[in-house]
Amino acid sequence: MNLPENLATGFYAAFSLINLLYCFLGALLGTLVGVLPGIGPTMTIALLLPVTFTLPPLSALIMLAGIFYGAQYGGSTTSILINLPGETSSVVTALDGYQLARKGRAGAALATAAISSFVAGTIATLIIALLAPPLATLALKFQAPEYFSLMVLGLLVSVSLSSGSVVKAMGATLFGVLIGIIGTDVTSGVERFTLGVTDLYDGINFVPIAIGMFGLAEIIRNLGQGEDSSRSIQSGKLSGLALSGRDLKQIVGPTLRGTGLGSILGLLPGGGVVLASFSAYAVEKRISKDPSRFGQGALEGVAAPESANNAAAQTSFIPMLTLGIPSNAVMAMMMGALLIHGITPGPRIMTEQPILFWGLVVSMWVGNLMLLVLNLPLVGLWAKVAQVPYKVLFPVIVAISCVGSYAIGLKMIDVFMLAVFGVVGFVLAGLDCELAPMLFGVVVGPMLEENMRRALILSRGDPTTFVERPISAVLLAIAFIAIVVAAVPKMRKKRAEVFSD
Amino acid sequence: MITGFLFVGIAACFALLAKDLELGTSQNMGPGFFPLIVVGLIATLGLVIIVSALHKPGGNANAGATKPMMWRPFVCIIGSPVLFALLVEPFGLIPGLSLSVLFSTLGGRPWRPWHSIAVSALVTFSCWLVFVPGLGMPMPLFNWPGH
Amino acid sequence: MRMKGAYRYELTYRRASVLLFAALIALIVGVQMAGAQNIGGAVTIVVASDPGAAPDVMARILSGPLSERFGQPVVVENRPGAGGNIGAMAVSKAKPDGRTLFMATVNMTITPWMTKTPAFDPAGDYTAIGQVASVPMVVVVNPALGVKTMKELVALAKSKPGSLNYSSPGIGSLNHIETVLFERATGIKMVHVPYKSGAAATTAVLGKEVDLFFAGMPPAVPQLKSNALLGLAVTADKRSSLVPAVPTLSEAGYTNLESDAWYAILGPKGMSAALVAKIAGALKEVLALPNVKVQFANSGAEVLTSAPEAMAKLLAADAKRYKGVVEDLGLVK
Question: Domain for residue C192, yes or no?
């Protein structure tokens, strides 16, 4: 593969004035849309789809792609500033990002998000350029047993997302799993836990759950402090917006690790940006020398998920472009857009449509660069949001939560769920139960069950399928080791306690 | 300890809702199999919490967070989306949003009526601007009931 | 970035960015307003699927040209859920004033029968305006399976009963039902593995997780064109122009099993004949446009128009047919 030549083709195509303009428009629109909860890249791309029919295919793709990864940038902004995840992949960023904002370090958090996203985007672009075909075939190797084992590993890792009691975290995760199960069961077609409500047949939408539990619950707590709501959420002065050398050193590792993890998870159909950001955070916390810093405002807790979700957003293009398999709804629409233009994604796309493929790849990097240049200076402006008097800020948060939730499907139920999960979030947080594991359970639980049952159907009821297949076995082994490693020190401590009595 | 009871309670609720689901066998799982396992695990964890809380003598300094319940913010912030959901379809976006935002501002203290009205108006206008012309969402602005 | 000079630089940079931001918001709003989003007078096409799915894409393709002919903006509204029931129910309750239209698929004649009390009556609650497209299904297998024709597939299935797996986008989907009807007609026994979507079901064949899939055209087209998957037959009565090498089921030796996923525009019941004629006329013009045809074709659909009366008959016939099938297959919950 002649990389320099291909990249040159790509640069030439991507740097045409038209394509630069569309790249910028897409990235900007994506950022704006990412900031708003409820409206996401999926909906925006759908709305703009007819517009792209009239555009040349490369420009159309460039713009749509810009919207997608731009939304990952934007989603972190509201997560950090007002504890309101603008995108589901930014939920984890809120855990540490918002705490940083409260301490006056919103600028540092936002800058970290921007920089780590850019680094991830750059590396992911290189990965696509070099490894697209082999990675695509790797994606195909993942079948039901492998997904199951991955989900098991994910759930175990998610329990370590919490700083408090492990038992409570496990319970919260399992509660999340039950919430996630609500709806129609794929394998049998039966409705579960829906109480006969038609609107619940497809389950509860993730967005109202996330913004209710994080955003609304936080508002209640803030108002309940009893202070004059003319103050702002930020306590203390707004410290430097820049990142010190020490800060930068702190975020290098998490960024790189997040990129790696995100790149792989983005490939898997059904994996995606949410899984990537949650896992990156959990991994980072696990290997950190001082895990107690997480949840209090650790920069690593922002760098890891942000780099992961950006990397995942970009590598999710690989299966779509090279195999014609969309890994998520956005990719499905891009594929639709490509097909309408008469371009068929598939293994030959790199040779048959080199301008399209390489132009897109290069423009993804260009878009990331534009986003960095656009967002870094705005960090100061955004950080000021944390200083807005709360009595003005919180009605805004409530309003965009309501409208955003309604905008998903124009259904009342989503707004009701917003209220319900505001209650849930408030209650759980009041009991010192952590919220992130529960959200992870909502996402992962149903996938775990679906794949477990599917694997058993395919193996005609033989459970050894999970350990016979190499990838699945490896994943389960890692999960097992993780439990042992976590449990042994505890057991030793218990034994020491018992013996010291 | 309250958490423990909560867990057991949740488990009981979901178990009740799942009682009609077929279990199937472990080789050929039905829709009720997995929920049963999950419910069982939650109940067990709940019991573990309750039991270990009973064992700790007087260590419940933080039991269930006995902070005074913040009723006013709670009602106003939770009530706001409920109000919005009920109003938006019969009455449209503008009345629905402005009234529910107005309601939410009751949660902040001290309550200044003019301030609330101003904020609701501004917020409603901005949201309309961003969502309807800005993003082209087909939301009805004004409606009469029974439309 | 820690020097004072840098801070001043940041300030002006910041001001410029703010202005730019504001300008851009104004631009976006302006563009939208120029597009005359007078929602009060708009015509809404309700789509009972997520954005990006086939009916959604088709509705969006039609919305532009239709709004030119109506002289009013045409907006697509996504109301996904419950296998299409949510969208269908929303339309059945709307006023028959021509402002609310429905991008219906054949699924609406299947899903109501799957619950003891149907959520709506496919034949009675709607006014048929006209069919817009037909999207046949194609039986796809992974080349590694070793069969090249439908007959070979059936032979393989007979030699190993209960060992072949087939995927579908969900229990009760047209794809699932067709496969079961095929099984019955040929006397073979296979195992059903449901997935969440057509794309997932197609990926399953690609990854060799299952052996075959009665796929809808849209997710299958890229795979067939790149020869990653092999098409054994199409379920329509004539070959598809997208994959002309694939024989029809009749040609492959299996008659009376044709089925067609039709896409049509409907309205709520009680629309006046004049209104129906007006919309149907506009629809017919739009569907004759060459670029619409091409865009539909690229998405896997063949444009196929029909008059309102013919569509109404098709709707009623399919509603009756699938009611019987669903009950027969024991899919009622």
Answer: yes
A458 vs C contacts (CB less than 8 Å): 165, 193, 209-210
Its pTM stands at 0.82
Confidence of residue A240 (pLDDT cuts 50, 70, 90): low
Mean pLDDT of C50-74: 84
DSSP C248: B
Q: Provide the domain count of chain C.
A: 2
One domain for residues C76 and C123: yes
C281 located within any domain: yes
Contact residues, chain B, for A462 at CB < 8 Å: 27
Distance, CA of A100 to CA of A112 (rounded, Å): 11
- Best A21, A198, A205, A320 member to test C by mutation, with max C CBs in 10 Å, is A198
Residues of B with Cβ-Cβ distance to C44 under 8 angstroms: 138
Please report, rounded to a whole number, the percentage of residues in chain C having pLDDT higher than 90: 12
Alpha-carbon gap: A194 to the closest alpha carbon of chain C (Å) = 11
Structural domain of C85: 43-134+263-328
Q: C29: nearest CA in chain B?
A: B134
Q: Do C85 and A323 touch (CB under 8 A)?
A: no
For A101, the token pair is 């904002």
Of B3, B49, B104, the CB nearest to A398: B104
- Has residue C14 been placed in a domain? no
What is the CATH number for C83? Answer: 3.40.190.150
- Segments in chain B below pLDDT 50: 59-65, 145-147
Q: What is the pLDDT of residue B12?
A: 85
B84 to each of A214, A407, B95, how far by Cα in Å? 19, 12, 9
- Mean pLDDT of the C35-57 span: 70
Of A190, A224, A228, the CB nearest to B31: A190
β C261-268/C302-303 pair status: unpaired
Q: Is A188 on the interface with B (CB under 8 A)?
A: yes
**A 76-135 near C (Cβ less than 8 A):** none
On whether both C275 and C210 belong to a single domain, the answer is: no
Closest CA relative to residue C9, chosen from A385, A110, A386, A376: A376
The answer to whether position C161 is within a domain reads: yes
Residues C122 and C48 both lie in one domain: yes
Q: What are the strands of the beta sheet with C165-168, ordered from one edge? A: C191-194, C165-168, C212-216, C137-141, C230-234
